[in-house]
Amino acid sequence: MAQASTEMHLPATSDLDGGRFSLRATQDRPIDLPGPPVDSSHLPGENGQRPDPRTVTVQRRVMPRAVPLPMKIQALNEQVDLKKARRSKAINHRKRRKNRRRTLQRLASAEEGLAEKKILDGFLLLHSCRVKNPQQAVKSKLVGENIVEVEDGDLLFFQNLTYLNISENRVRLEQLANLKSLRELHVQYNFIKGIQLEPGMFQTLEVLSLGFNSVPAGHIPQLAQLPSLRVLDLSGNELCILPEDLSAFAKLEELDLSSNNFSSDSVVVEPGKLFKSLSTIAHLKRLNLGHNALKGTPRLT
């Protein structure tokens, strides 16, 4: 009996490039059909036995990896947010300079006598607090009232006053010493050119804002006599140096030195001395050095 041929012919069932083709499979060359890999472990072998799944290899089609974008979406969003933050910071800085210019112009016009000059006395404090009894006065706001003088004796009756905002006037810090219970005091834009404090003044004062005056660096240690001072604002005082030792500020936690003349390229004082003097404040937690010409934090030696 003649031996049967092991070759088999399969009819063409697919089109490839528009033409018909036929598939031929032999025992030495299996058919390679397109499509997902087929698990042949369940098919019988040559002797009718199922092959061992551990010895069967399945060829899997290797899919090309997706080409990554030049930049991750997260990194792109971070850059966009950074640009927005810088733009917002620049806008706020311009607004701040514009407001400062307007404030100085208004104060200059008041100095020329275009506005009525006032005296800070008991009646003005009562009117600002909307009370009739000095013991009921707790909070007072007298911004831009063109106050040029202070009646010291009247302030002794306001022993419960804890907050006072007297910015944009012409009042010195020492003139308010009779307000014994003050905890927060704002005296921005008051043309203050010096500080002369005596022991015992402002024993309860915790927040002091002296922004946009002309406080010299040599008078800053005077503020260390305030035993309860936690927050100090010295922004916009044209400072370029600081005292070497600020350790007397025992409870100071926040210090604002923004919009001054500190510079990394200063020929007057090395930037390292600035940070070295700041390091002497033992309990300092928050420091603002924005809007200065500092390029970084120098190494302390």
Q: Keywords for this structure?
A:
about 300 residues, alpha/beta, Leucine-rich repeat, LRR (right-handed beta-alpha superhelix), seven-stranded parallel sheet, two-stranded antiparallel ribbon, 4 helices, about 15% strand, disordered N terminus
The value of Rg in angstroms is: 40 Å
The count of strands amounts to 13
- Kindly state the percentage of residues in helix: 10-25%
SSE class: alpha/beta
Under the CATH scheme, which class of one domain? Alpha Beta
Low-confidence stretches: 1-29
Task: Describe the secondary-structure layout.
Layout: E1 8-10, E2 15-16, E3 19-20, E4 23-25, H1 73-111, E5 118-120, H2 122-129, E6 139-141, E7 147-150, H3 152-155, E8 163-165, E9 184-186, E10 207-209, E11 231-233, E12 254-256, H4 271-278, E13 286-288
Parallel strand pairs: 5-7, 6-8, 8-9, 9-10, 10-11, 11-12, 12-13
Antiparallel strand pairs: 1-4, 2-3
Describe the structure.
The protein is elongated, with a radius of gyration of 40 Å. It has helices at 73-111, 122-129, 152-155, 271-278; strands at 8-10, 15-16, 19-20, 23-25, 118-120, 139-141, 147-150, 163-165, 184-186, 207-209, 231-233, 254-256, 286-288. It starts with 7 loop residues before the first strand and ends in a 13-residue tail after the last strand. A seven-stranded parallel sheet has the order 6-8-9-10-11-12-13. Helices cover 20% and strands 13% of the residues. It has a domain at 118-288: Leucine-rich repeat, LRR (right-handed beta-alpha superhelix). Strand 12, helix 4 and strand 13 form a beta-alpha-beta unit. The protein is an alpha/beta fold and 301 residues long.
